[in-house]
Amino acid sequence: MSDTEQYGGISRRTLVKSSAIGSLALAAGGLSLPFGMRTAAAAVQRAIQPAEEKVVWGACSVNCGSRCALQLHVKDDEVVWVESDTTGDDLYGQHQVRACLRGRSIRRRINHPDRLNYPMKRVGKRGEGKFERITWQEALDTISDSLKNTVEKYGNEAVYINYTSGIVGGNITRSSPYASLVARLMNC
Description:
The chain has helices at 3-6, 12-30, 37-48, 101-104, 106-111, 136-154, 169-172, 181-186; strands at 54-59, 69-75, 78-84, 120-122, 131-133.
């Protein structure tokens, strides 16, 4: 259940902002301040105005190989909706590259409450679901040590590149997984 559904159409962020601004308005009305109430009311009004939306360009990363351009509409440092490329024409060579449904719904992946935003390490037995947060450096060291150990014991052929995992997309691959930077690195 999303924050909006949980609070009847009001997001948690909006609720917290409104509560803080309401408290400020009450405090400003109940105290004698060195400035007039008109100035205080104007400050409260500016604070409760909705945040300005900005558009940043990104690329789809669902691993089909197309790397479609995406316009991410961002408000309060959160992607609120995703739009495909709208800059081209319907002429060959100037066409729009429109993302598919997976690409246009990437906002749900980015904003999902269960999305991991930092590295975790298993501390219990496999399947117990017990993890602890670790630093990025510890995570990179663990991965590189494991990769080195695998290559040393079994050779480069033992390293599997999980193309179409939904995370590398066009960022570090080409249309073919065998022509990617990852494949070249693993074959070194």
